[in-house]
Task: structure prediction
Amino acid sequence: MTVDELDSFFRLKWTVLGVVCLLFVGMGIYGYFLDQRLRAFEDSLRHNPPEELEVGNSLEDSGQNFVVDPIQGQLVYVPAYSHVYHGKGKPHLVTITLSIRNTSIDHEIILKSVWYHGTRGTLVRSYVDKPVRIPPLGTTEVIVEREDASGGSGANFLVEWFANQPATAPIIEALMINTQSQQGISFALRGSPIRQMVPPN
Result:
């Protein structure tokens, strides 16, 4: 290799190295710019706690005026999905969590039965062999595993509960989730009472 060729080789080498360095510097500046924009966006979404009322402002009603409509039991229908469809009807399996939350501050409720039904309305299984006590503000859960598609896309739960004393109605909902694919999915559906027991007068 001649001196001129060697000189040309080094010039080319340093030129390529310079371009690479400029590229990295440019990417660093661009990354810093994106990071600052993201931080500014996150700051705009930060939680703002409730502010106290200004002097002179007052509430017309206080907690002492709250009225509770107590009941002593319900039969609750909760819609659920063991899978949902996407694309050209391809099933997307999900895990189901049935959550039963006692909203009463003072009284326990008793979970009498949890029936899991399939798309055609047939009983798939029962999840409660004997009554389950849920303490005040307590929660109990039932899980249908992702691989269990027996309920189908029209699955549902029938949940029956009662209380020995009038209590506020629990929150009963089904959470469907799958995080095993590149595009995770999650959604929740709340139950609707279809029968209700009111305390005697």
